Amino acid sequence: xxxxxxxxxxxxxxxxxxxxxxxxxxxxxxxxxxxxxxxxxxxxxxxxxxxxxxxxxxxxxxxxxxxxxxxxxxxxxxxxxxxxxxxxxxxxxxxxxxxxxxxxxxxxxxxxxxxxxxxxxx
Length: 122
Ligand code: HEC
What we know:
The chain is mainly α. It has helices at residues 2-28, 41-52, 54-57, 71-79, 82-87, 105-116. The chain is globular and about 70 Å long.
C-alpha cells in the first residue's frame, strides 16, 4: 500500500513538472509567427536598414559605393535584385550584413514581402 502511494506521488510530481515545463516553454517561445502584413517602408523596412545596414551604407559611409539611405538610392539595389540577393546570401552577391550574422529570418521575410509588393514608398 505504501509503495502504491509513493508511485502515485511520483506520477503526480512528474505530471506537475511537465505542466510547468510546458508553461515555461510557451513563455520563452510565443508562437507569434512573423507578421508581414501591412508593413511599410517608413516603419519596419527603414528600421531594419537603420539597425543593420546604415553603419556601412548611409550617405556618409557609403561602403562599396552603396548608399541605402534614402528611398531613391535604395531603389537602385532593389530593382537590380542585389539587395534581396545580398541579405538572402544568394550566389553571385556579397552576403550582407558584411562579415556579420545574417538578418533574422523574420526581417528577411519582411523585406521580401515588401519588395515583392513593388517596394512602395509608404
Ligand atoms: C560592415 C559593413 C557593412 C554592413 C553592416 C552592410 N554592408 Fe552591404 N556592403 C558592404 C561593402 C564593403 C560592400 C561592397 C561589396 C563587398 O565588399 O562585399 C557592400 C555591398 C552591398 C551591396 C551590393 C552587393 C552586390 O553583390 O552587388 C548591397 C545590395 C548591400 N551591401 C546591402 C546591404 C544591406 C541590405 C545591409 C544590411 C542588411 C548591408 N549591406 C550591411 C559593407 C556592409
